[in-house]
Each structure stands twice: as structure tokens, then as C-alpha cells.
Amino acid sequence: MPHIPEAAAIPDTKLAKAITEFIRDTETDLLFNHSSRVYHFGALAGVHGNLKFDRELLYAGAMFHDIGLMPSHSSKHERFEVDGAHAARDFLRSHGIPEADAYTVWTAIALHTTPGVPHHMHPVVALVTAGVEMDVLGLTYDQYSEAERTAVVGAFPRTPKFKEDIIQAFYDGIRHKPETTFGNVKADVIADKEPHFHRGNFCSVIRCSHWHG
């Protein structure tokens, strides 16, 4: 069985263990395993790109990035990304993490569904999104070796119908506040002026990704 390299392994620290315990007790198996893969794929992307990044902060960003989908951490009117960012920042503050580092993690989570922006930012911000885009959308599938993909999925398995399961989890987490989905005004403007414009569809990209299931 291929192994995840040490440079992309989960940090063996008190903070990382506390994060694992908290998310394990709060999220579903689906989201816990997904978030764990997001960390590993993000860390591997950092290794591939020779980026200097704090593994603890990346782990916090990856593990908390979807906690806003859980009823226990979902507000009535904030975007789920912001709910997750708030939860992570509060958790890190309670563990004595400096405000600047907590804000970096906040930013990484708040922007993880905003393509085209995070990769220009702090490595932790960029790598959380990189991990999400790999695990959910498979956008950088070919940038990982088969051994790397096998090692990550072996450690944190995908469900047989992961694509449909993750779409359902998103729906369940945001359906009570549809007004928070208002977003990419650029697509709205083009659609308003060009009747034949076809918007990109997040769910279609998931279903067409390289991943099976």
C-alpha cells in the first residue's frame, strides 16, 4: 500500500489531535473523510509546488472548511463558508493560536468556493482550495501520481457514490438559506446580455470529473 509522504502527513501535534477529535465528533463520516483528503491533497500540492506552508494551519483550514454545513454550526443568514471560517477562528483562538494565523485560516475557509482568487494568496489559503478542487472536482487529477491518489483515498475512503453524496451534503447544509447562494455577478451580467450564454455548473463538473463514484 502506498504511503503518504511525511511532508504531507497530518502533523503529530497537540493542536492537530484536538482538531481531529473535534471534527470527528462534529461532522459526518462523509465530510470528515472528505476534509482529511482535502488536507492531504492540499499538502501534496504544496510539496509539488515547493511552497512553504504551516501544516497545522493547513490542517485546520482543511478540516473546518465544511463544518458550516453541519446544523450545529450553521447560522440562519451567513454563507456556510463564513460559518465554517468563524468556527475555525474561534477554535484556534481558544487554543492560543495568534490572531494573524487564525485569520489566515478564516480566509482560507471563507474563500474555498471562490475560484481564481485563493491561488494568488497565502499558501494556506491557496492550498485549502487546491485540496477541495482536487477531491471534489478532480481539476488537478493528473498532477498527482497514482500512488499519491491511492495512498490518500486508502487512508480516507470515498463513498461508492461520493459525487452524489457530496452534492446532497451541500444541499442539506444550505437549503434553509438559499439567499446566501447569490454569488458570481459576472455570470449574471453576461447571461443578461447574451441570451445563448451557458453558465458553468458546479454539479456537472463534479459528475464529469476523473473520479469514479
From TrEMBL:
Classification lineage: Bacteria, Pseudomonadati, Pseudomonadota, Alphaproteobacteria, Hyphomicrobiales
HD domain boundaries: 32-117
InterPro entries per UniProt: HD/PDEase_dom, HD_domain
PANTHER family: CYANAMIDE HYDRATASE DDI2-RELATED
Gene3D superfamilies: Hypothetical protein af1432
Origin: domain of life: Bacteria
Record's signal peptide: none
Pfam families: HD (PF01966)
Name of the protein this chain belongs to: HD domain-containing protein
